[in-house]
Specification:
The structure is a homodimer. By secondary structure, the first copy, chain A, is α/β, with parallel strands linked by helices. Chain A has helices at 15-26, 33-42, 44-55, 63-66, 77-98, 108-111, 126-135, 145-167, 188-203; strands at 4-9, 29-31, 101-104, 118-123, 179-182. In chain A, 55% of the residues lie in helices and 11% in strands. Chain A is globular. At the A-B interface, strand 5 and helix 9 of A face strand 5 and helix 9 of B. Strand 5 of chain A pairs antiparallel with strand 5 (179-182) of chain B.
C-alpha cells in the first residue's frame, strides 16, 4: 500500500508550502486542490459530469463516478454537492493508488482513511497568517490588513463547512489528525525535515 | 534565557513518558507534578503555607508566595485555590531560572509564557489510552476496562477544569500549543528524537 500524507491547513498558515516541501523531502507525489480539480476537468467521465452540474439538467450520472446513479431534480442541490464530493473522493482514491503522495486539502484524511494516511493539520495565529499573506507575491500586498483578515476568515469558514459537510467531523479538531503544527513565528522550510522524520517513524512496522 | 519545554497531556496518552524522554534527549532538567509538589513541600515558606490551607485557619499568608497577603475567611475557598496556583507559579518560575528544562503539566505553558516556552500537547484515542494504562506496571491491570475509562475521564475533567480556572483558556485547544502530538499507535521512544529536532529548530534565531 502506498504511503499517504494528508495536510489540512488554515488559510495563510503556510500549510500548502509545508505540504509541497514535505513531498519534495520525501520524494512523494504532490496534490492539492488545483491539481485535483485539473484532473477532474481532464478526466473524460468528469467532463460530462461537471457539465451536468453546470447545466443543472436532469441526467443520469456516470455510474463509475458516484457508484450509483440518480436523477437531478430542482430541489436536489444537496445531492449534487454530495456527488461533487464523491467525484473528488474517486479521484483521490485513484491518485493514492499511483504512488506515495502528499495531498493538501480535499478532506483527503477522511476519504483515504482506509489507507491509514499520516494526517497533519497546520495552523497559526491570525497575526502570523496576515503577515504570511502580505509576504506572498500573489498580489495580496495591495489589500488592507482588514481586507486580508476578512478573506482569511471567509476561506476558513468555507473550509470548515466543506469539511464538516463531507466528514461529519469538526475541521481542525486535533482528534482528526496525527500531528498539529503551529507555524506562528516558524520557518516552514526548517520544520519540514523533522516532520518528515516523524512520519517516516510512523510508517515503521 | 533558559529554554523551556512544556508538555500538556491527556491521561494515558504517554505525555509524561514523552516529556521525560525529551528531557533526556535534550539534556534538560525534568519536572512534573510530583516533583513540583515535592519542591513545594520542602520549601520553607510553603510548608507553613500548606499547613495554613490544611488547617483552614485565618492566617496571614507569606507575602513572597502570593505577592500580596490577605486573611482567610470561611467563604474564601476560591482565593485559597488561587493562592495554591500562585505558589506553584512561583516554583515554576524559580526552576525555570535554574536551567533549560522540560515541565509536564502544572499549566507551565501559561505561567511561563513570558519565557516563550515550546508548548507541546500530547493526546490519543481513548482505546489507545486504555491500552497504555493497562500496560503500565503500576497496578492498573487489576482494574476493568470500564473502571480505567472512568478514571481517565475523571482525571481529564480535573485537568481541564484546573487549566481553565488558571489560564482562562481551553485545555487541549491547539491554539495554546506549538505542537500537538497524537500518540495513538505510536511508540513514544521513537517519536522523541524528531520532536527534539523540531523544537531545537524553533530555538534557532
Amino acid at each position: 500500500m502506498n504511503r499517504i500524507v494528508t495536510v489540512g491547513r488554515e488559510f495563510g498558515s503556510g500549510g500548502r508550502e509545508l505540504g509541497r516541501r514535505l513531498a519534495e523531502e520525501l520524494g512523494y507525489e504532490y496534490y492539492d486542490r488545483e491539481i485535483i480539480e485539473q484532473i477532474a476537468e481532464h478526466t473524460s467521465f468528469s467532463e460530462e459530469y461537471i457539465h451536468q452540474i453546470v447545466e443543472g439538467r436532469r441526467h443520469r450520472l456516470y455510474p463509475i463516478t458516484i457508484n450509483h446513479s440518480f436523477n437531478f431534480t430542482s430541489d436536489d442541490h444537496a445531492r449534487i454537492i454530495t456527488s461533487v464530493y464523491e467525484a473528488q473522493s474517486e479521484i483521490l482514491h485513484q491518485v493514492s493508488q499511483l504512488s506515495d503522495c502528499v495531498i493538501v486539502g480535499r478532506c483527503a484524511d477522511y476519504y483515504l482513511r482506509d489507507q491509514n494516511p499520516y494526517r497533519i493539520f497546520v495552523y497559526a495565529d491570525l497575526d502570523s497568517r496576515v503577515r504570511r499573506c502580505q509576504a506572498r507575491s500573489d498580489g495580496a500586498g495591495q489589500f488592507t490588513e482588514k481586507e486580508i483578515i476578512r478573506h482569511i476568515k471567509r476561506i476558513d469558514r468555507h473550509r470548515a463547512r466543506y469539511y464538516h459537510d463531507t466528514t461529519g467531523q469538526t475541521w481542525g479538531d486535533k482528534r482528526c489528525y496525527d500531528l498539529c503544527v503551529n507555524t506562528t513565528g516558524k520557518e516552514i522550510k526548517a520544520l519540514v525535515p523533522h516532520i518528515a522524520a516523524l512520519l517516516r517513524e510512523a510508517d515503521e512496522p
